[in-house]
Amino acid sequence: MNRALPALALAAFVATGCASRGDVRRMQDDVAALRASVTDLRHAHELSTRELVRMAGELRALDARNAELQAALGEHAAETARLRARLDTAEQDLREAKAPRASQPPVTAPVPSAAAPAPAAPPPRPETRRPDEAEQAYNAALTLFRAREHGQAVLDLLDFIAKYPTHRLAPSAQYWIGEAYYLQRDYRQALLEFQRVLEMAPTSPKAADALLRIGLSYTNLRDDTRALQAWQRVVREYPATESAGRARALLRAHAARRP
Question: In whole angstroms, what is the distance from residue 217 CA to residue 72 CA?
C-alpha cells in the first residue's frame, strides 16, 4: 500500500497537467534511488547488528576462558605446594629414621708407668648403631607406604603406635596414616588422623606438617574458610618451620584468586 502511494501521486500529478513527462521520469528515478538507499541502509544495519552480536558472544567466551585459566592457575599453585610439602615431609622422615643416637664416648685405658712411651693406639672406629626393633617396624611400614600399599601400611603403622606409643617416631607414624588416607582422597578420615598428630604431640615437628595437611584436606572438601584458619594457625604457632613457609605461600595463592 505504501509503495503504491508515490505512483498514485505521480498519476494524479500528471492528470492535472502540472508536470511534463520529463519531470515525472526524474521523480520516478529519485524515488527509485531513495528506495535503493533505504534498502542498502537496512542491509548495512542488519550486518552491523549481526557483527555486534557475534563480537559480544566472543567477548563473553573470552571472559569465561580467562576465568577458567585463573582458576586453573590457582589450582596449579596449590598442587605445587602440596607436592612440595609431601616431598619435604618424606625427606624429613627419612632423615629422622636414619639419624643415629648419640653413642657413649669410648673409655680410655690408663697410661702405663713404664719409662718408654707406648705407641699411640689407632683412634677407635665410631660405633655404627643398628636400628632397633621399633625403628625396623617403622621403616618397614614406610616402605609399604612408598610402594603405594597404603592399606597394609596403615595397619602396620597402627600396630607400631600400639606397641610403641611413646617412641619418638610415633607422631611420624600417625602422620603417615593421615597421609595414606589423604592420597586415597578420603579427606574426612585424613582430617581425623592428622588431628590425632596434634593431640599426640603438639610440639613435634610433625604437628606443623599435620596442620598444613588439615588445611589442604579442607580445601579438597571445598571448605576454604577452615582451610585458611588452619594455614593461619601454622604460621602463628609454628612460624619457623618449613610448613609455615608453605602455609604462607598457600595463603598468598588464595588471596590472589579473589576477584
Answer: 18
